[in-house]
Design goal:
Layout (H helix, E strand, L loop, with lengths): L6 E10 L4 E8 L5 E9 L8 E2 L5 E9 L8 E9 L4 E7 L7 E6 L5 E6 L6 E6 L6 E3 L6 E5 L5 E5 L4 E8 L5 E2 L3 E5 L13 E3 L6 E3 L18 H12 L1
Antiparallel strand pairs: 1-2, 2-3, 4-5, 5-6, 6-7, 8-9, 9-10, 10-11, 12-13, 13-14, 14-15, 14-16, 17-18
Length: 243
């Protein structure tokens, strides 16, 4: 929908705390339809990008909905497909209760699959669904995965595993989707990642180079650090032994 603009007719604040704000806008769509309950989240110094299908017709968004009072386990995340012209939901993936993470949705270059990571198995893992029917489902990561993207040719999925390694999964997309075995590419622990669940990295359109934001104060010679509990007791024992 290049060049088509929404017109804001009104706005009111519906939620506010020191970290997050929500407003309800009334907008007129390019079609002329007026929507009076368009909710917009606002975060300071923060940008949130949602996925759009290659034809620009559908926006893929994520929600976290209360399933009951009180606890985190009563929440359930969902992935929704929204018609970008009339602002109406066309389909959704409702994750099991307790699945409180679903992020970084990406549409495949051919527009036939969507990619996201969620904690529905307990820990964050990367999943693929068929688009637009959302019926087919495959887990492509093993032992943890997040911040996944497609390579430009759609032949691989790249993601970061639970211990800070960039992983690659070869995939077959036709006649049916078949994920291969993940393999490690390189260590990315020097990467600067303040915006999780959003990725601070990408791959160039030719698929030959990675682009990262690197932490400038990272000591490249340090690959790990140790946390010592009850160190005062240990120090006291060591000093007592020397006496």
């Amino acid at each position: 929908m290049p060049g088509e603009e929404w017109e804001q007719l009104g706005s009111e604040r519906v939620f506010e705390d020191p970290h997050f704000k929500v407003r309800r806008d009334t907008v007129r769509l390019p079609s002329g339809r007026v929507v009076d309950d368009y909710l917009v989240g606002e975060l300071e110094d923060y940008a949130l990008v949602v996925a759009v299908t290659p034809d620009g017709a559908t926006v893929v968004v994520t929600n976290l909905l209360p399933q009951g009072p009180g606890t985190d386990s009563s929440l359930a995340a969902e992935v929704c497909l929204v018609d970008a012209t009339v602002l109406e939901q066309t389909a959704k993936i409702k994750l099991p209760p307790g699945s409180t993470v679903v992020n970084h949705v990406c549409v495949s270059p051919d527009g036939k699959y969507i990619l996201y990571y969620s904690n529905e198995p307990g820990n964050p893992e990367v999943f693929v669904r068929t688009y637009p029917d959302l019926k087919g489902k495959w887990q492509v990561s093993r032992n943890g995965g997040q911040l996944a993207i497609w390579t430009p040719d759609g032949r691989e999925i790249l993601y970061i595993n639970a211990v800070g390694r960039m992983m690659s999964v070869p995939v077959q997309r036709a006649p049916t989707f078949i994920p291969g075995v993940p393999r490690e590419l390189f260590d990315i622990t020097q990467m600067y990642t303040p915006n999780i669940p959003l990725a601070n990295w990408d791959i160039t359109p030719d698929g030959k180079r990675f682009i990262f934001i690197r932490s400038t104060n990272f000591n490249a010679t340090v690959s790990m650090f140790n946390i010592v509990f009850n160190w005062r007791d240990e120090l006291t024992r060591e000093l007592s032994g020397k006496k």
